[in-house]
Amino acid sequence: MAARFIQLKLIGPVLAGLAMLITGLAAIPYYGVETVDANARSQQETLVERNVAMSTPEQIKARRRSKTRPLVAHA
């Protein structure tokens, strides 16, 4: 009878530990995705900076003109 009482006393802590383990494992992807997103964002920003640095003044002026051109309805 004493063995059963000890087994019942251990069930609570085991279930609590298992719940914490599952919660921790479920949280891992969120932190991983955040890290991957941060790395991808910094790489894209670096590429944009390099592309802008490589542009000639004429290309930059052309880009500015094309962005400010008003929309025209075609019939």
Short description:
This protein is mostly helical and about 80 residues long. Helix content is about 85%, strand content about 0%. It is built from two helices and no strands.
> How far apart lie the N and C ends?
91 Å
- Rg, Cα atoms, Å: 30 Å
Mean pLDDT: 79
Helical fraction equals over 70%
- Number of spatially distinct domains: 1
Class by SSE composition: mainly alpha
Question: Could you list the spans in which at least 5 consecutive residues all have pLDDT below 50?
Answer: none
* DSSP strand tally: 0
| Largest pleated sheet | none
- Per DSSP, the total helix count is 2
- Secondary-structure element sequence? HH
How would you describe what is shown here?
This protein is mainly alpha-helical. It has one domain. The chain is 87% helix and 0% strand. The protein has two helices and no strands. The mean pLDDT is 79.
What is the element layout, followed by pairings?
Blueprint: H1 2-54, H2 57-68
